[in-house]
Specification:
alpha/beta; five-stranded antiparallel β-sheet; seven-stranded parallel β-sheet; 470 residues
Length: 470
Amino acid sequence: MIQVIGGLSFLLALARGQYTPDWESLDARPLPAWYDDAKVGIFMHFGPYAVPGVESEWFWMQAMRNESEGDQKCAKYLEDYFPPKFVYQDFGPMLTMDFFDTDFISDLVVDSGAKYLVFTSKHHDGYCNWPSTYSYGWNSMAVGPRRDVLGELKSSFEKRHPDFHFGVYYSLFEWFNPIYLKDKENNFTTREYALNKMQPEMKELINKYSPDVLWVDGDWEAKPEYFGSKDFLAWLYNESPSKSNIVTNDRWGQGTAQKHGGYYSGPDRFSPGTLQAHKWENAMTVDKISWGHRRDINIEDILSMDEMVTEITKTVSCGGNILINVGPTKEGTIIPVFQERLRSIGAWLKVNGEAIYGSKPWTTQNDTLSSNVWYTKKGSDVFGIVLGWPKDDVILLGAPKVEQGQTKITMLGFSGTLDYTTEFQGVAVQFPSLGKVLQGCSSGCQWGYVLKFEGLAKDDDYKVDISIEV
């Protein structure tokens, strides 16, 4: 059984109609239901780092510190191809976004099967993808595309896909902002940057675009007291235009990761493979190396569809959401291999989404006999997602307890019921021929095949209690 865990502070907050700026109250706020139901989101890292397109979205920092092999690659790129006085800010006018088609991107994201998007509003370089009044001369309206990137993109989703959830990423700190560096030099005993730049800018962002997701980052250098995280979250949950629908992650300052905030985003590419006690998210990249666009990317750097479906399956089975990142080019386009991956994910979800969207963790996540099988549940139905096709068209499962004459097993995307026999170790399920399955549902059935179990023994009979805090 799945329990929704609340607390006294939450009940008090309901009575008062507001949340107070302390972690007990803020952490008691339940996540809006849409987020847990959505399961799949798309992440897009975009900024001036797309212009060089070398190494990663940390290009500026890497070129400046020049310590690791990757750092040296960035520094050498600047030295080899740009004049001596060229600085990172000179990439700004080159961020032209000549072919930035918001309708194409919104359709592509929806075609991927994702239910929400998180787009970079500002990364650690401080460049804002909207006309921030707190970032004079270093935003998308002042330099580069001279467009309100966030505004145009959100408008396209509202026009074409009104039920879609639009979100933003925001870096709490900025590497080389002199005001921030002064606070850092003072060991964060002063808060000029937090009070006069970060906090008002975040409020402007929320007030202007009313996002459904606020994904914060850059939490490792200072404590939440410096950033004013608790005060901001209290405002966000009580007064902001997004207060009813917004979800946040957990990167609100040193010591908050996987402890405070909304859902837990954990470390990058967090995929524990086991059920977690709190709602979590696996933020990962199709490019194995970088979150931002790389012009020197090779096909071996791209996750295969087998790997993508495996990540989606394991994440959702263990109670998480998956946030799949692709980095647009400086022209504002998505390279073809990323388009192909996103559309292939969408094709798979179109066939097998019943086992993903709105699902809950089952009593077992990974099968006890076949390690390539992961489970989800919706209502009384259980889904076994089989990664790869079984040898000899038969798979032996140890977790499901079938009841002869009552249990029905089908495969999503294939009509008809499947035969099964009970064995000493478990249940042996007879798959149809692979040719018939692929003929019936084309490419959407590849990479993972979903068995639907109806009429299994009740969850209480498994003597397992599932608790997940949402």
